[in-house]
C-alpha cells in the first residue's frame, strides 16, 4: 500500500505546567484511509506518550473527538488525512471550551447547559400501561434533532458562545427544540421559559455556522428560529 509522510503540527498545552501553549511537530507515514484520529493514536504510541486527546467509538457516534483540524472543526475519527490539502496538518483543541490538556477540553459547562434545558420528555398525561407511541407525521419535526451526538462542534464554531459564557449554545437549544417539537411533550410554557432570554434563543446571531458544521446534519439555527416563533406573544 502506498504511503506518504505528513507532518502533524499539534497544539500542546498543560495548564498544570508553567509554559505557554506551543505547537510540536511529528512526522508519520499516512497510508490510504488513515484518519486524523488514527494518526494521533500512532503518534501517541510511537513518538510521544504525553500527547492527550479524547476518543471512544472511532465511528462518529460517541462525539468525543471533535477538534479543529486545519482550522475547521471536525470529528477526528471521520476525517481522512489524505483528504486534507497540504503537507502539514495543524490540529488544535475545540474552541470555546477550556483546555484540560493538549486536545482535551473541559466539557462540564457544555453538559450543564444541555441539562439546563431539561432534556427529557414531560408529558401532561399520566403514564400509560405501555409505551407512548408517536405517529410518523408527528415525529417528523423532532426527529432530525435526535441525531445530535453531543460532540460540541456547533459550540466550537458559535460566535455567541465565543463571547458569552452564559449563552446556552446551539447544542442545548437544539436539544430544547427536540422536546418542544415532540408531540408527546406537555411542558409547553414552562419549557419555553427556559430559553426565553438573551442566554437562550434571543442570543443567537443567526449566522448558521452551527448548522453548517454539524457532522450529523442537525440544524440548531432552524430549531432556534422555530422556538422564537413559539415564544413570541
Ligand atoms: S471517536 Fe467517537 S465520534 Fe469520534
List keywords for this structure.
233 residues; alpha+beta; Ubiquitin-like (UB roll); Fumarate Reductase Iron-sulfur Protein, Chain B, domain 2; five-stranded mixed sheet; two-stranded antiparallel ribbon; 16% strand; elongated; binds FE2/S2 (inorganic) cluster
Notes on the structure:
The protein has 233 residues and is of the alpha+beta class. It has two domains: 103 residues, Ubiquitin-like (UB roll), CATH 3.10.20; 124 residues, Orthogonal Bundle (Fumarate Reductase Iron-sulfur Protein, Chain B, domain 2), CATH 1.10.1060. Helices cover 29% and strands 16% of the residues. The protein has nine helices and seven strands; from the N terminus they run ββαβββββαααααααα. The strands form two sheets. A five-stranded mixed sheet has the order 2-1-5-3-4. Strands 6-7 form a two-stranded antiparallel sheet. A hairpin with a 2-residue loop joins strand 6 and strand 7. The longest helix has 12 residues. The model has no long low-confidence stretch (mean pLDDT 96). FE2/S2 (inorganic) cluster binds next to loops.
What's the average pLDDT?
96
- Evaluate the radius of gyration: 20 Å
What order do the helices and strands follow?
Answer: EEHEEEEEHHHHHHHH
Count of helical stretches? 9
- Counting DSSP E segments of at least 2 residues, the number of strands comes to 7
Work out the count of structural domains. 2
Largest sheet: 5 strands, mixed
Examine the coordinates and then state which fold CATH places here, giving the name of the CATH topology of the largest domain.
Fumarate Reductase Iron-sulfur Protein, Chain B, domain 2
Amino acid at each position: 500500500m502506498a504511503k506518504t509522510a505528513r507532518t502533524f503540527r499539534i497544539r500542546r498545552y498543560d495548564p498544570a505546567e508553567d509554559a505557554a501553549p506551543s505547537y510540536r511537530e511529528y512526522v508519520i507515514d499516512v497510508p490510504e484511509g488513515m484518519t486524523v484520529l488514527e494518526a494521533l493514536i500512532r503518534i501517541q504510541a510511537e513518538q510521544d506518550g504525553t500527547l492527550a486527546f479524547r476518543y471512544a467509538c472511532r465511528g462518529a457516534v460517541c462525539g468525543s473527538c471533535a477538534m479543529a483540524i486545519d482550522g475547521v472543526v471536525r470529528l477526528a475519527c471521520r476525517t481522512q488525512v489524505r483528504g486534507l490539502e497540504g503537507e502539514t496538518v495543524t490540529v488544535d483543541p475545540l474552541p470555546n471550551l477550556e483546555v484540560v490538556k493538549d486536545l482535551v477540553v473541559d466539557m462540564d459547562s457544555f453538559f450543564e447547559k444541555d441539562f439546563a434545558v431539561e432534556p427529557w420528555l414531560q408529558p401532561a398525561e399520566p403514564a400509560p400501561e405501555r409505551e407512548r407511541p408517536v405517529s410518523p407525521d408527528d415525529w417528523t419535526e423532532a426527529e432530525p434533532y435526535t441525531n445530535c451526538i453531543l460532540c460540541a462542534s456547533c459550540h466550537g464554531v458559535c460566535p455567541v458562545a465565543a463571547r458569552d459564557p452564559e449563552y446556552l449554545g446551539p447544542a442545548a437549544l437544539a436539544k430544547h427544540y427536540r422536546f418542544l417539537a415532540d408531540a408527546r411533550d406537555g411542558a409547553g410554557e414552562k419549557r419555553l421559559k427556559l430559553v426565553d432570554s438573551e442566554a437562550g434563543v434571543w442570543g443567537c446571531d443567526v449566522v448558521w455556522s452551527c448548522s453548517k458544521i454539524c457532522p450529523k446534519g442537525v440544524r440548531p439555527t432552524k430549531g432556534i428560529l422555530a422556538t422564537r416563533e413559539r415564544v413570541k406573544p
